[in-house]
Structures are given as structure tokens and as C-alpha cells.
Amino acid sequence: MYQMTGAQLIVRLLERQGVKTAAGIPGGAILPLYDALSGSEIIHHVLARHEQGAGFMAQGMARVSGRPEVCFASSGPGATNLVTAIADARLDSIPLVAITGQVPLSMIGTDAFQEVDIYGMTVPITKHNFLVRSVDELLEVIPAAFRIAMSGRPGPVLVDVPKDVQNQTIRFAEFPPVATPEPLPALDMAAVEEAARMINAAEQPVLYLGGGVIHAGAAQAAVAFAEQAGMPTTMTLMALGAMPVDHPLSIGMLGMHAARYTNFVLEEADLLVCVGARFDDRAIGKAAQFCPKAKIVHIDVDPSELHKIKQAHVAINGDVGEVLEALLPRVKAALRKRWLSHVESLRARFPVEWAGQDDPRTHYGLVQAVAAALDDEAVITTDVGQHQMWVAQAYPFRRPRQWLTSGGLGTMGFGMPAAIGAALADRSRTVVCFSGDGSFKMNIQELATLAEEGLNVKIVLMNNNSLGLVYQQQNLFYGKRVFASKYRGAPDFLKIAEGFGVAGVDLDTAANPRAALTQALHAPGPCLIHVSIDREEFVYPMVPPGAANTEMIGG
Amino acid sequence: MIEQVAEPLQTQTGYAKVVLEIDVNNHPGVMSHICNLFARRAFNMEGILCMPVSDGRRSRIWLLVFEDQRLEQMIRQLEKLQDVLAVRRHGAEHEVFERLEDFFH
Predict the structure, then answer these.
(1) Partner B contacted by A286 (CB < 8 A)
(2) Count of CB atoms within 10 A of residue A475's CB?
(3) Which of A8, A281, A369, A469 could form a disulfide linkage to A36, CB 3.0–4.6 angstroms apart?
(4) Does residue B5 carry a pLDDT above 70?
(5) CA distance A19 to A12
(6) Structural domain tally of chain A?
(7) A-B contacts at Cβ under 8 angstroms
(8) Domain-by-domain residue ranges, chain B?
(9) Considering only CB atoms, which chain B residues are within 8 Å of A304?
């Protein structure tokens, strides 16, 4: 017979679930849990400086490990500060277990100090959430939270635990089993056969990979399938790395900031095989005009994604890895010489041109110089904005989970805490966070956490002293009426880094910027690498609002 | 940042009605999960009924909704909720709401 408090039980259940690191910030309503956590010899607690930072650290860990990771916050403002990180995890299907303290049960609903209805608030942004009403429920709820977070399409789960539940004593005979994923949906083999028939009959098929391929660990299966079927392969922002960008069948990222030829190839497709992607508006532009000539095969583990935006001719609900493996022996080996040579001619007619790529002080040159200094084992995170798109376009991603970015929610402030999480998940890797000056300031306090943990995180800060993508859109689509997108003040980021105890390198003033960059990337420990970027450099090509993907401007 | 590209929402009047019968786990919070799905999409619920069944561990929810083109997606979203055990679809002629009419006149 075991006897312990609810707080101790939570910690033991997390340990049994294999949690080694968790990020959070304590406060009144979660102090019993923190007291129990102080007694854990297994869980390393990382003290964030803002709960959103803690949420993104847990996300960074989960995006690297593929397992649910944990963050903690107290009630009220602690819990509301987690909301953005939870919503971000939901849109990018990241397994996350967020545990919040709550005021005691008898005080819920009384507007008690630091009381908010975080359960109610997180209903639409979690895969599921719990408000624990007795200590006995914890035996069921904590494993369920992990099971739900990791099963099928992954996602965030919130567990709200009132302070008195944390303090209650429980006696129980046995720990519940460690949570494992639920069984995958059974495959509809008739649909698989029909999909194979369509692929074999197609003249100009395209494979369209999404983040689901990464989550399912199906990147290798996707590449094998593409090779067998001879299909040019495009990836969403979330899928970059699923197929190495220099693979002969890769046609790179599709959508708003795709290379021109990629969107033109999709325009001509007669069959689109969509695997673990969800026809997001940034990827497909005007839905009615996306792949106008193509029949659609849609494969997804989440049945509600099928037929959501585009009606599929064949829809297969299942684990994308399993479906691809089932399709492989049914798909004829095809060279598709005519189609692939046409793809090549489009690529040659609309070549990707990255201005200034030999100069590490230009945006594309910097991305390429960082890539040249690192191998594929490094993890790359970004914030959100122009720098994010430049990295997505120009960095040679070659393996799944090499690339961590906030895709669905597009959260500025994601990059650095996610990089901290990535480094916590695997301390042997170098982690580079590309950021912009607008995004960086949104979670800049996490420099303190970074310095404290001494992690191998390099922040490459592209500084144009503006909200660059807003500035770009005001210039292109709002009659050049630039408003609230240029900063009047200009903080000294190197001094800020120094103040937090993080080393800094300024490529603006370096005699040999390439050498300075390489040295900074290879020195152990955290470092801020600062580069000024011309504000007039825009992200091109760009599909304007309301337009079809083929109506790109620039580039 | 940029306007999303979508057709404006159609009003739901003019569509036929359907009755959805939903088996759920019975605990506080289940209704908010379900109502949220509909409210957020401006998918009007014309009628809603909920009572516990058998031993009280489960409840049954009856919804009267319009059969607009988003209904299939709504049902798939419902089925995705952890606390939803089954969704069954009936025609508007189902008597559950008809018998209640007397209370609303």
C-alpha cells in the first residue's frame, strides 16, 4: 500500500512516464507540487522567466523527442501566460502536458486571488483538458493526459489541479500502468487499393507532405514511396526535412513563399497525394484554384481533416507511415521521365535566386553561412516573420526534427525558448535559433534561463529594427502607408545579452564576419550573434492576399 | 496579418433540421466542450437536451441543428472529443424535440 499526497503522486506519475526535464514557474497555488518536485531525483526542473517561455521550452523538447513533455504554471496569471504556448502546440500538433495549480476546490467560482477558469479558457485550444476534483482522480487523469497527448494526432493536454487536491493524502495499492499510445485506426484496404490504382494511372502526380509525416516518424517511408512512384515531392513549412532538400525528387516548400516553379508544378499536377498535411491557407492559397487539374488522395490520422478544405477523391484515415507502407508494394515502380523532365524544365525556367548569398551579412548569405558551418545534426529553430521564411527557403534541411518553427499559430517569441527546450532534450546537439528583433523581444527574458542552464544555443539575430513582415505588407498591399511597424528606439542587443551573462558577437563590426560566425557557432555555450539586415529586403516570391498560388509577385 | 481567403458565412435559414444523439461521459465540463465547437463556428443549435443515463456515469445529449454543408465536419469534430462516445444522426421527425414543443408555447 502506498500513501502520499496528491502533489507527490503527480511527481511519481511523471517520473514513471519517463519525464526527465520539465519547465515552469512556481506560485501560490502550485507550491505543494513544487515542494514534491524538490524531492525528485529524476526530474530536472528548469526555471523559466515567463510561463510562455516554459510552455515553449516544453514544446522544444517535444518537437525534438517526439514524446509528450511537461510544463508547470501556477493559477491565474501563471496559467493565462501558458495559453499562447498551448494554442501553438495545438495548431502544430505537438504533444504537451501542461499542469497548472488552481485555487482550492471550495474557492473555485468565488473570484479568489489568482483564480481564473483556465479549464474553460483552454477548451478550444487543447486536445483535451481536465479539472481534477479529488486526489483519487489523479491516478487516472495523469496517465490519460499523456495517452491523449501522444495518441493519433498529437496535441496539448491541460491538467488543472486545485491546491487542496495537491495536499490531500491518498492510499492506493498499485500505480496505474505507464501510458502508451492508443491503437492506430485499422486501414481501409479498399481505399488503399483505390489510391494505388490512381497513382499508377496518373501522368503527373505530386506528393504533398505535411507535419504529420514528421510526427508519425514516417519520413523514411515517404521518401521510399516517392522514389518508387517517381513523384516530385513538395513539403509544407512543418514538413521541411522530411525529404532532404537536395533529393532529386524534392521540389521544396509550397505556398505563400514557395519557389515559383514549385507552385507551377502543383498547378499542372493531375494527382495530388496529400500525406499528413491539412491544406492550410498559407500552403494552398485560394483553395478553389489550388491544383485545379488534380484528383486528390488524402491520408491523415485525424479523420476530421479529410474533406475539410478540399474534397478528396480517396480519403484514407490512418497512421501515415502504415498507409505509405501499405501503398508501397501496390505502386508500380515508375520513372516518369516525361513528367520529371518537365518539372526540371520549370525549375530551370524559374530558377531560385538568392541575392547576396556569398555575403554572410545579407539575409540569405547569413542563412547559408550558418548552414555551411554546421552539419545536419544541428537543430534549427526560428521565431516568426521574414527571417523565418528566409530560413525556410534557404536552409538545407535534410532530416526530420532538424527544424522547429511555429507554423500554425505563427507565434513571435517561439524561437529562443523552443531552442532552450531542444538543447535540454539533447545536450549533445548545437541548437541555432534564427530570430528577428521584433520576435526576440517577445521572450527576451529567457536569456536568463539560457545563461543559467549554460546550453549550447546560438541566437542568430537578424536586426532590421522593425516588424519586417508587417512593414513588407504595408509597402506591398497598403499603399506604402507604413504605420506601427518601424521602431523608433533601437536597443543594443549585445549589451542586453551581456547583461544576462550571454556572450555576444557583432557581425556588423567583425573584420571577417564569416570567421567570426563560424567561431561563435563552434564555441561551447550560449551566444548571441547579431547582424543588421536591410529593412528594404522583402520575402519573395509572395502570393498576395486572396490570390491563387500561381499569382506570385517578386522573386 | 493578411486577410484569410474564404467565402463569407451563409445564413443557416432554409436548411432542413436534423437531430443528433450524442453519448458522452457525465462530468462537469462536457457541455462546454460540445457547445464550444458549435458556438465558435456560428453553427446555431436550435435545441439542446441533456440527461444522465443508467448509472449516471454517462449522459445523453440531444441536439437539434440545421443540416448545412458543414454538418459532416461538425460531426467529425464531435467524434474527436475525448468525452464523446458515439454520435447518431436522426431526421427532424424524431419525436424527442416534438414532444417538448408543449413547453415552448
Answers:
(1) yes
(2) 16
(3) A8
(4) no
(5) 10
(6) 3
(7) 46
(8) 22-104
(9) 73, 76-77, 79-80
